[in-house]
Design brief:
The complex is a heterodimer.
Chain A (H helix, E strand, L loop, with lengths): L2 H4 L4 H26 L1 H17 L16 H29 L9 H23 L13 H28 L6 H22 L12 H41 L4
Helix pairs in contact in A: 2-4, 2-8, 3-8, 4-5, 4-8, 5-6, 5-8, 6-7
Chain B lengths: L15 H23 L11 H5 L1 H7 L5
Classes of the chains: A mainly alpha, B mainly alpha.
Chain lengths: ~260, ~70
């Protein structure tokens, strides 16, 4: 029996594939954000600066006119941000993959990678986004930034807990039950945690009255799209790299058997 | 090609304790990297607000609270 071919690869091998998948996906997400999001960021900054000429910005607030980094630099820094963030997320996905390897019930690496990326997109992005949607410059009170950062991070954790509750519900209903019952249990567990979190967590109403609603919507759509590109990319690339790796290992193991 | 029907347990190639420490160190480093991109305002990076400003657009478009 060619046991070597099905042996789990070492942690560092998986980690390197996760980091690589994340870096590439991050750069792709950066390209999407540059095309789809940058025009809205520029428009929002123009509004912010028009407002700043009337009212002196509060202490601690951004002033984009004498920023340390020029606007051109910030547009290029977008790729640095999404690339590094993507690599970090890919590495964390690879770590989760290894930690869960003892408990998972499938040997299909691609399936596991895609499921994990989907779970991360739902729990760590979509659930927090619907409670605390992304804001362009000129939206958001600098005085509440610490509070908003803490509640946002908490919401990311709660979103992941919601996905975990969903998977618990799915497994609680035995595999001999019809699919719709398992799906209903999964949706029930996920929605229970999500709805309770939404009710319990504080809300922030900080959009200025005169901020264009269409600009806000377009920016938020571009922001969500950036995360969707990122996680779709991480899932697909990680699955592809693991698949390639398994095939290579299987081929290497063959002559010895 | 597909091994999803196989029932044999997955074999760990690294010792459990060593794996645990490697995993913990990895999570710590990646969390620090995430913090630098998404939340730092110069306290950790020691670059003042330079890195914060450089990655300003990315932070907004990734949906992290910025200001």
């Amino acid at each position: 029996m060619p046991l070597k071919a099905t042996t789990a690869p070492p942690f560092l091998t998986v980690l390197v594939r996760g980091l690589l998948a994340g870096l590439i996906a991050g750069l792709l997400a950066g390209a999407f954000a540059y095309v789809a999001g940058e025009p809205h960021v520029e428009a929002a900054i123009a509004i912010e600066e028009a407002a700043a000429t009337h009212v002196e910005p509060a202490a601690g607030g951004h002033n984009h006119e004498d920023a340390l980094v020029s606007r051109t630099g910030q547009r290029g820094g977008l790729f640095l941000a999404t690339g590094l963030f993507g690599a970090a997320m890919g590495g964390l996905l690879a770590t989760a993959y290894v930690l869960l390897s003892r408990r998972r019930r499938t040997h299909d690496d691609g399936r596991v990678g895609l499921l994990l990326a989907g779970a991360a997109l739902l729990g760590a992005v979509i659930v927090p986004f619907l409670k605390y949607p992304a804001n362009p410059p000129a939206v958001g009170d600098p005085a509440t930034i610490n509070q908003r950062t803490v509640t946002y991070l908490l919401m990311v954790v709660l979103g992941l807990v919601a996905v975990w509750a969903g998977s618990l519900g799915y497994r609680a209903v035995g595999s001999e039950a019809p699919t719709w019952q398992r799906a209903a249990a999964a949706a029930g567990g996920f929605l229970l945690v999500t709805v309770v979190s939404y009710v319990v967590m504080p809300s922030f109403q900080e959009v200025p009255d005169d901020f264009p609603a269409t600009l806000l919507w377009d920016f938020r759509l571009a922001s969500l799209g950036t995360q969707v590109v990122l996680w779709t990319g991480i899932g697909l690339l990680f699955a592809a790299l693991m698949h390639h790796d398994r095939r290579r290992r299987a081929a290497a193991a063959l002559p010895s058997t | 090609m597909s091994t999803s029907t196989s029932s044999q347990p997955l074999v760990h190639s690294a010792g459990s304790t060593r794996l645990l420490w490697t995993v913990l160190a990895t999570v710590a480093v990646l969390s620090l990297l995430t913090y630098l991109v998404a939340f730092d305002q110069g306290a950790v990076s020691r670059s003042g607000m330079y890195l914060h400003e450089l990655m300003h657009d990315g932070r907004h478009l990734l949906g992290v609270p910025c200001h």
